[in-house]
Write a structure and sequence with these properties.
362 residues, alpha+beta, Creatine Kinase, Chain A, domain 2, seven-stranded antiparallel beta sheet, two-stranded antiparallel ribbon, glutamate-cysteine ligase activity, nucleotide-binding, ATP binding, GCL_type2/YbdK_subfam, Putative glutamate--cysteine ligase 2
Length: 362
């Protein structure tokens, strides 16, 4: 059974006003004092962000429980210094990001200028175990057209600097300003993948391999495929669903590779359009069908995803969990829909943030 791990970035906010607060160092100091040796939480690019990483899990129920646990622990530690955490992929309120003290982050700011300072965005990265780099590349080549569907499911960033962007996932539009971000062409082999990464770093435009921000990549730290398209999800249940579907996609791709089935040959141009469609509308309108690259209702495309991964979901014991998760998601909507629903009800973006703080704490 493939193991899965999840990394989530949370936004640190003032519990009363909802404004982002640059308190990551203080939160991490509180963690170190209360839980010596705790290695789950880390700082991120900006001091208004806090990241945690789960342990690798083969049981999706256990992974879901761990996501909830670390969200609650993040909230507890933030509360200990008068702050709060919110699972928001962008700040609904205007923000002035404060860079963390780190030579790497300073290099990014000097190299890329304003786009770096506009990267106060929070994502969810899913690591799925693979047996080798060759299997990993076979997986990356075959999951490409399905990644925009995960983007749509997770979409949780409709607001930016106090305005409605008209997007469900505006985080993805901000993130794609990095020159190495986005979908990739087919690699075909691990050797070609590593050569491409080395060539990209050799240009000098990137600091190192860690800056290869593909939508999905081989992890440089773990024997995993790292799927990076998701917004941090407002609901922990949605994050667990993304992880469940990610493992099923990886398992399905690996099985297809072993069976000698070719990878879909969609061009990067089409994949970018599919990703834009998912970011713009989330689950509210059509998505591009990953097989045909033609528009289809979001519910129908999600059904196609379940069918595509059905055998893998069954083998992993996740079929019922995935079916129920998708049904619930379609009923209540993703984080973008919930944020807009909260704004319609309260009339205040500050109230949206404070309500999302409560959502994050479960």
């Amino acid at each position: 059974m493939r193991t899965v791990g999840v990394e989530e970035e949370l936004l640190l906010v003032d519990p009363d006003t909802g404004d982002p607060k640059a308190l990551a160092a203080a939160v991490l100091a509180h963690v170190a004092h209360d839980d010596p040796g705790q290695d789950v939480f880390e700082k991120e690019l900006f001091r208004q962000m806090l990241e945690f990483a789960t342990h690798p899990q083969s049981d999706m129920a256990a992974l879901a429980e761990e996501i909830v646990r670390w969200r609650k622990e993040a909230a507890r530690h933030a509360g200990g210094i008068g702050s709060a955490v919110a699972a928001l992929a962008t700040s609904p309120l205007p923000a002035s990001p404060s860079l963390s003290v780190n030579e790497r982050y300073q290099w990014l700011a000097e190299r890329y200028g304003i786009p770096t300072w506009e990267q106060l965005v929070c994502g969810c990265h899913v690591h799925v175990a693979v047996e080798s780099d060759e299997e990993g590349i076979a997986v990356l080549d075959r999951i490409r057209p399905w990644l925009p569907v995960l983007r749509a499911i997770s979409a949780n960033s409709p607001f930016w600097q106090g305005q409605d962007t008209s997007y469900a996932s505006y985080r993805s539009r901000v993130w794609n300003r990095w020159p190495s971000a986005g979908p990739t062409e087919l690699f075909g082999s691990a050797e070609r993948y590593h050569r491409r990464v080395a060539d990209m770093v050799a240009t000098g435009a990137l600091l190192d391999e860690g800056m290869v921000y593909f939508d999905a990549r081989l992890s440089a730290r773990y024997p995993t495929v790292e799927i990076r398209v998701a917004d941090v999800c407002l609901s922990a249940d949605t994050a667990a669903l993304i992880a469940t579907l990610s493992r099923a996609l990886v398992e399905t791709a690996a099985q297809d590779w072993r069976a000698g089935l070719p990878a879909p040959g969609h061009s990067v141009s089409l994949l970018r359009l599919a990703d834009w469609q998912a970011a713009r509308f989330g689950l509210e309108e059509n998505l591009l069908d990953p097989v045909t690259m033609r528009p289809g209702p979001a519910a129908q495309v999600l059904r196609s995803l379940l069918e595509h991964t059905g055998d893998a979901l069954t083998r992993c014991g996740d079929a019922e969990r995935a079916e129920q998760g998708v049904a619930e998601l379609l009923r209540r909507g993703n984080g973008a829909r919930e944020q807009r629903r909260l704004l319609e009800r309260t009339g205040s973006l500050r109230d949206v943030v404070t309500e999302c703080v409560r959502h994050t704490q479960g």
